[in-house]
Structure formats: structure tokens, C-alpha cells
Amino acid sequence: MKKMNLVRKAIVAVRFLRVRLRSIFYYLLINAAGGECGRRLKVDGPVTIVGDIAKLRIGSDVSLNHGVLLNCRDVIELGDQVTISAGAQLQTAFLTGERMDHHSAKPIKLGKVVGSLLASSCLLEQSFARML
Hints:
- By secondary structure, the protein is of the alpha/beta class.
- The chain has one domain (2-128).
- The protein is 23% helix and 33% strand.
- It contains 1 helix and 14 strands; from the N terminus they run αββββββββββββββ.
- It has one helix spanning 2-32, and strands at residues 36-37, 42-44, 48-51, 56-58, 63-65, 69-72, 76-78, 83-84, 89-91, 93-96, 102-105, 108-110, 117-118, 123-125.
- Strands 1-4-7-12 form a 4-stranded parallel β-sheet, with helices on one face. Strands 2-5-8-13 form a 4-stranded parallel β-sheet. Strands 3-6-9-14 form a 4-stranded parallel β-sheet, with no helix packed on it.
- The N and C termini lie far apart (51 Å).
- Residues 128-132 have low confidence and may be disordered.
């Protein structure tokens, strides 16, 4: 029984370390590419960033969960204490025109309210993106 508890503790420690290392990687990547990233970013699983990372602005205590997609054709701003749940997509790009043949992009701003949450597998397009 003691051995099993040690194994469980080791598994928990490895999972914590993996999340912490991934979070540090994304923090360094965003800041090195010209974007802004606040303190205590938590990235729990792979996150896809499409477009210009320099257009990404992330506040402090932000959590990005497994499978999040950030399409940065225009600015994406995530304020402090925002959580983006698993599989959610933030799409700044969209099609316009009569035949939907013209690409456009507008910014997304989330998180003026402390504790904003974007639910799992949610698609947030620019036309619905101004949550203050």
C-alpha cells in the first residue's frame, strides 16, 4: 500500500511538472515573439496559436486548457484571471462578401470582468467577441 501511494505521488508530481514546463514554454514563446504575457500563465495541454503571435495579449493568472485554438490574424486580448476551457476556439478571422470570398479580421477582447470563462468546445468569433 505504501508503494502504491509513492507511485501516485510520483505521477501527480510528473503531471504538475509537465504543466509547469509547458506554461513556461508558452510564456517565453509569446514574449519572445513580441506578444505580451502576464504572470502565472497556466497551459494545461497543447494549445495552437495561428497567425501573428505578436498580436496576442495575455493578462495574469490566465488558464488555457487542452486543445485551445487562438487565431491571431488580429489582436486577441485576454484579461486577468480568464480561463479558456478545453477545445475552445478564438477566431479573429472571418469571411465576408456576397459569396463569402473576402477574408477580414477584427480583434477579440475578453476579461474585463474578473474570472471570465469560455466554455469547453466553444467557438468565439469576432462578431460576438466583445465581452466586457
